[in-house]
Amino acid sequence: MTSIEAKLQQKVRLTLEEGLSLYDLPLGTLAQWADGIKSAKYGDRVTFIKNYYLNFTNICRYACKYCGFRRNKGDADAYTLTLEQVVHKLQSAPEAIREVWFSSGLNPELPFQAYIDLIHTVKRTVPRAQLKAFTAVEIDFIAKQFQYTHEYVLDRFIEAGLDRIPGGGAEIFDDEVRKKIDIKTRPEDYLRIHGLCHERDMQTSITMLFGHIETRKHRIAHMLRIREFQDKSKGVQAFIPLAYQDENNPLAKRGVRGPHPVEVLKTLAISRIMLDNVDHIQSFWIDSGAEVTQISLHMGVDDINGTMIEENIAHASGSKAKTYETTQALMQWIEGAGKVPAERGCRFEILENEVRVGS
Q1: C-beta separation of 324 from 308 below 8 A
Q2: Regarding predicted confidence, which is higher, 280 or 357?
């Protein structure tokens, strides 16, 4: 028995160097350890959600080097959806939805009231669906744009009907790497905003964008920072590693290639092993594809996000996955991997009854 295996059996936390050494182990060994941890918590259960991923504007003040989605205001394909268009999309959803998910560009032309109106419109259109909207980066941008505090923006959005914020925008918690890939919200502010959500009884997810110019050590350090933050805040419900997409963005044009499927699977398994205080590890099928997602269900993953109706951001940077997978397809993926599918809500609660659009 190795020292790391002994530590895991004794539930002793691994250090940064020990976490880094996990990448040198065979994939089968990592799968055995990670799936053992996951199975002890959830057995064979794997969750998913029926969700609509609505990117309401692609106009963005920032120009992150891994992003192929953003546009300038004057670009021919720049857009901002009207409220009428939002209503039409939600009412035209191909199946029942449990969650409406907004994540978009940082559009300096939008007034503050536009965000409130957007929340109200969604809640009126799908009153029994939950709304997950405005990442910490968007909250930070809106606060700076209107000279409000983070607290004020969050409180106004929650009053309007916001149920949860997405975990996007974490990228890699390393200042030197961030200087090379984006110019947006500092890690300190990202985590502060998540902490404010936790103080308001709103649990959150945190992401990690990997497989670009960061090193494996940066990834482990990112996980450890989340682990430390969670020890204090106790509101991080899920960790979502996002595989960098290597087309149609500035990094791709420089020849930066995305992670190999084995690297994706190892990172997912290591996430489960390192993050002992985060309940859920999610495989994001939009980035990784159906086959890797199925295999990941043996790597400690217990959630595959959802139907993701109309996802645009990852696809603009090169994702080859569909922009929507049916509930039936997701259940077939899970069952095909020998696991048991369970539908959930945006707070990871297991659901029984179907919610219809407009009901």
Answers
A1: yes
A2: 280
C-alpha angle with apex 330: 279 to 304, nearest 5 degrees? 25
CA distance 271 to 267: 6
CA 312 – CA 240 distance, rounded (Å): 18
State CA 92 to chain mean position distance. 25
Sign of CA dihedral 287, 8, 230, 160: positive
The pTM for the full model equals 0.95
pLDDT of 317 over the 90 cut: no
In 166-278, alpha helices (H): 175-181, 187-199, 216-233, 250-253, 261-274
Q: Taking 80 as the threshold, does the pLDDT of residue 178 lie above it?
A: yes
CA distance 193 to 281: 21
Tokens for 329, please give them. 């397809």
Q: Give the separation between CA 204 and CA 270, rounded to whole angstroms.
A: 20
d(CA 300, CA 42): 10
Question: What is d(CA 60, CA 106) in angstroms, rounded to the nearest whole number?
Answer: 4
pLDDT at 358 over 70: no
**Domains (range + CATH), the chain:** 18-343 (3.20.20.70)
* The Cα angle at residue 283 between residues 309 and 270, in degrees rounded to 5: 165
Segment 181-219, tens digit of pLDDT: 987 899 999 999 999 999 999 999 999 999 999 999 999
Contacts of 336 (CB under 8 A, 6+ apart): 294
| Rounded Cα gap, residues 73 and 65, in angstroms | 18
- Cα–Cα distance measured from residue 333 to residue 327, given in angstroms and rounded to the nearest whole number: 10
Average pLDDT over residues 49-60: 95
Q: Pick from 71, 58, 70, 68: which is nearest to 251 by CA?
A: 68
Q: Do 307 and 321 meet the contact criterion of CB atoms below 8 Å apart?
A: no
Residue 354 has a pLDDT of 46
Count helices and strands (H / E) in the chain. 16, 9
Cα–Cα distance, 154 to 172 (Å, whole number): 24
> What is the Rg, in whole angstroms, of the alpha carbon atoms belonging to the chain?
19
